[in-house]
Design goal:
Elements lengths: L7 E3 H9 L1 H9 L9 E2 L1 H22 L4 H4 L6 H13 L10 E12 L2 E13 L2 E8 L7 H6 L1 H13 L7 E7 L2 E9 L2 H22 L30 E2 H4 L3 H6 L11
Parallel strand pairs: 1-4, 2-8, 5-6
Antiparallel strand pairs: 3-4, 4-5, 6-7
Helix pairs in contact: 1-2, 1-7, 3-5, 7-8
């Protein structure tokens, strides 16, 4: 078993590896199909996932020029309507300060070693001397600035944009905007030291995966078994059958980031 030379890494696959090497092996190398439920109740998870996709689609259409009155959701969907209203209200505050050249749902890919590292951005706003990444979040609880800085998404997104557009790291920043906390966006500037650290971290991580893929045998499972309740491979790994609940996950921000409906790589149009 080895990594294909054209393998595409992403924040989701790298986060999977850091969370649990065995999950990465099963999902990306063995391409193991395992139809376990990720979280319960299933219908609620699917409903929230669909709302999240529709919310991102509404913003994409608005950024591309459709007027807000045409896009307004039905009053029969109060959650989506509230998120949309919060987004529109933010246009006159945080979003009004964004560079004028704005593109929604953008994918960028850069070479890293012999592989590719890909990021799917909700929004990129640029000028010649400034680039801002905006990521829309619908999770119930807002992480702290320190927690966001540790997320794989933050490290990968800022790094990929700086490299792909050949920008000095100091001209790049990222904003997390939360639909449930519209007045509390969290901005994360970038600098050369962080960029160098991200390069070393991501390169070392990919080298570790590359070396491990050349060896036979099963990769080790996570020691944090609470995460297994939200993994579709839990029964295959003898880590239980019953899925964890969304209510319990909301109290653990690491689990929120793990669940598929918050993984940006899972949102496609």
């Amino acid at each position: 078993m080895s990594l294909p030379v054209n393998f595409h890494f992403s924040q989701a696959s790298l986060a999977d590896y850091v969370d649990c090497p065995r999950r990465f092996q099963l999902r990306y190398l063995l391409e193991q199909a395992w139809p376990a439920v990720e979280s319960e109740p299933l219908l609620e998870r699917e409903r929230l996932a669909e709302l999240g996709r529709r919310f991102h689609k509404l913003i994409q259409q608005h950024v591309e020029g459709l007027p807000s009155d045409v896009l307004t959701p039905s009053s029969s969907e109060p959650e989506l309507t509230r998120w949309w209203q919060n987004y529109l209200a933010s246009l006159t505050a945080m979003l009004s300060d964004l560079p004028a050249d704005r593109r929604a749902e953008v994918a960028l890919s850069i070479p890293l070693k012999t592989y590719r590292l890909t990021a799917h951005f909700d929004l990129i706003a640029t000028t010649t001397d400034r680039a801002v990444i905006v990521d829309w979040k619908t999770e119930q609880r807002q992480p702290t600035r320190e927690q966001l800085l540790k997320r794989m998404q933050t490290r990968v997104y800022r790094y990929v944009l700086a490299v792909a557009q050949q920008r000095p790291p100091g001209t790049v920043s990222m904003i997390y905007w939360f639909a449930h906390y519209p007045d509390q966006p969290i901005a994360l500037p970038y600098d050369a030291a962080q960029h160098a650290d991200d390069h070393q971290f991501l390169t070392t991580l990919i080298e570790e995966i590359e070396q491990r893929a050349q060896q036979d045998g099963e990769w080790e499972m996570t020691l944090q078994e609470r995460k297994c309740a939200y993994c579709v491979y839990r029964s295959l790994c003898q880590r239980g059958v019953q899925a964890g609940t969304l209510t319990a996950a909301e109290d653990d921000l690491d689990l929120v980031a793990q669940i598929t409906f918050e993984a940006v790589d899972a949102i496609e149009y």
